[in-house]
Design goal:
The chain has strands at 2-6, 14-20, 27-32, 39-43. The chain is an all-beta fold. It has one domain (2-43). It has a two-stranded antiparallel ribbon. A two-stranded antiparallel ribbon has the order 2-3.
């Protein structure tokens, strides 16, 4: 699993960008401390 995010950098500090849900991971999370939305992208493969 791999992922990342896209969003404006002005007004946002990315706090976490990584897999969640145990091992193996079941999702991807991006957490920001600002109010500007960010979009998370993830690719899953068996």
């Amino acid at each position: 699993m791999g992922g990342g995010y896209q969003g404006p950098t002005a007004g946002n500090q990315i706090v976490y960008n990584g897999p969640v849900g145990g091992s193996p991971a079941t999702g991807w999370q991006v957490t920001a401390d600002g109010t500007t939305p960010v979009t998370a992208y993830v690719v899953c493969a068996p």
